[in-house]
Amino acid sequence: MQHLIFFNTKGGSGKSTLCEYSSKELQRLGHTVSVDSNMLR
User: Fold this and answer.
1) What sign has the CA pseudo-torsion 23, 17, 37, 2?
2) Cα dihedral across residues 23, 27, 33, 36: positive or negative
3) Which residue of 15, 16, 23, 37 has the lowest C-beta tally within 10 Å?
4) Residue 4: CA count within 13 A, CB half-sphere
5) Which domain of life is it from (predicted)?
6) pTM to 2 decimals?
7) What secondary structure does DSSP assign to 1-41, as a single string?
8) How far is CA 38 from the centre of its chain?
């Protein structure tokens, strides 16, 4: 199992948008994706 982690940073870095785009693209490529939305605050 591989993990892709978006670290919390100050400012409007767009982590939730980046995570959403990445998860959709990985799913399109046939990967199983699990997103923990509690981490996207």
Assistant:
1) positive
2) positive
3) 37
4) 14
5) Bacteria
6) 0.55
7) ---------SS---HHHHHHHHHHHHHHTT------GGG--
8) 11
